[in-house]
Amino acid sequence: MSTPPLPEGEPEPSHADPHALLEGYLDYYRATLLRKLDALPEPEQRRSRLPSGWTPLELVRHLTYVERRWLCWGFEAEPVPDPWGDRGPSGAAADPWKVPDGMTSAQVVAAFQEQAARSREITSSAALDARARTGGRFEVAAQVPTLAWILFHLLQEYARHVGQLDVVVELAAGATGE
Matching InterPro entries, A to Z (predicted)? Predict the structure, then answer.
């Protein structure tokens, strides 16, 4: 499956449509994440420089699963065989993020890009005030969030993690930036 390239910059300042802004900023953070990963040589992509122990590739895989959990399994209530597949053997929240042995960085990035494309399919035709379906991540109708809430949640997750990756890139390569 071929996925379109992510846009490099922020959405145009003239955008006033909240839906376009949310999707545009998600694409901006996705592209920034991949640009920062690409700034690291392969050994640094698999090395942790932080006390928490995660590696840049594990972060990319984590964000792949974050989108899958919130949009496929959550908003669409699609069956997702292993929604917590980014975690270690027990799948518990305490397990650190993992990339399976033998999975290449190209495979991690391809899975991320495929998930981003699927996420765009889901969000592009749904209204911001639409509520997630029950039966997937959400079992009780009174507890299901709106698409707007989910997209804002994803934005804050990306903003936090891309900022953390910026620190890792600075520690590993001395580069700083956007």
Answer: DinB/YfiT-like, MST-like
